[in-house]
Amino acid sequence: MARYLEIEGKTALVTGAGRSIGRAISLRLAREGAQVAVADIDRDGAESVVAEIRSAGGEAVGLQADVTSSSDVDATIGATVEAFGKLDILVANAGIGIVARLIDTDEESWDRLMAVNAKGVFLSCTAAARQMIRQGHGGRIVINASGAGKIAPGKNTPLGAYAASKHAAIGFGKQLGLEVSDHQILVNSICGGIIDTPMWDLIDRETARILDVPEGSVKAGAVDSIPLGRIQQPEDMANVVAFLCSDDAGYITSSAMNVEGGLLPY
Fold it and tell me: Judging by DSSP bridges, how do beta strands 89-92 and 255-259 pair with one another?
């Protein structure tokens, strides 16, 4: 059941939408009545989510997109507007993770993380903002930035390069929100915690190898540290995205909102 009737008829573009958090966001916005452009570098993943949306009676189109390419990003926004006539919402969700201590992180890995998690956000959000400015009726941009964009992951959590890329995304979002505020385009980041996704399975596996501890113990310890006492689900992130796209969030911009069960200190 839709909660935010004002989202009905809006057009949303979600990047990295072929699985996990992006899938949950796409399904939730479609349930609210939005027309959803499901974009992912994996076309099959995007089309699978489109099929889910359509089977539930929603409107969606699948697009293959590499967010590190400006031409791909421009083409994706163009295809969204061609399909639905406008762009009201962008969720910059595409992201990757690499598990390694900073002193062991190679240049290629660093460049790849920054290309997807920082440059991809820059390209997607600025292109979407330009489209929204041309349309002249405001819009919403939400960046999936991660709790790692606010604090250092920790001595025994080898996600330093990932954290650096997410810190960049948050700083970018705060500044973009100020720059486009006159156009009533609201830009916010969401900062998740320990989310039950394939990425956290990767973190558990690789961290266990680096620290020479049993596989599964890293994720279990992380979950034990969550004040709310349960692992986060992709839908928990999708719920906050829907809120940020609603009228109830009409006075929130340039914010980095915690969605992490109480883990973050600020």
Answer: unpaired
What DSSP letter does each residue of 39-102 carry, written as one string? EESSHHHHHHHHHHHHHTT--EEEEE--TT-HHHHHHHHHHHHHHHS---EEEE-------B-G
Give the CATH H-level superfamily of domain 8-193+233-258.
Answer: NAD(P)-binding Rossmann-like Domain (3.40.50.720)
Which tokens sit at 23? 């899938």
Distance CA 169, CA 114 (A): 10
| Alpha-helical runs (H) found in 106-159 | 107-113, 120-135
Please state, for a pLDDT cut of 90, what percent of the chain lies above it.
Answer: 96
CB 140 within 8 A of CB 89: yes
Distance of alpha carbon 157 from the chain centroid: 21
Q: Which amino acid is at 186?
A: L
Active site residues per annotation: 162, 166
- Give the pLDDT of residue 140: 98
- Whole-number average pLDDT of the chain: 96
- What does the CA dihedral 213, 219, 222, 224 come to, rounded to 10 degrees? -100
Considering the chain, tell me which residue range(s) the CATH 3.40.50.720 domain(s) occupy: 8-193+233-258
Within a 10 A sphere around the Cβ of 137, how many other Cβ atoms?
A: 11
Q: What are phi and psi of 203, to 5 degrees?
A: -60, -45
Which pLDDT value is given to residue 2? 67
Cα→Cα distances 8→23, 28, 30, 170, 259, Å: 18, 12, 8, 28, 24
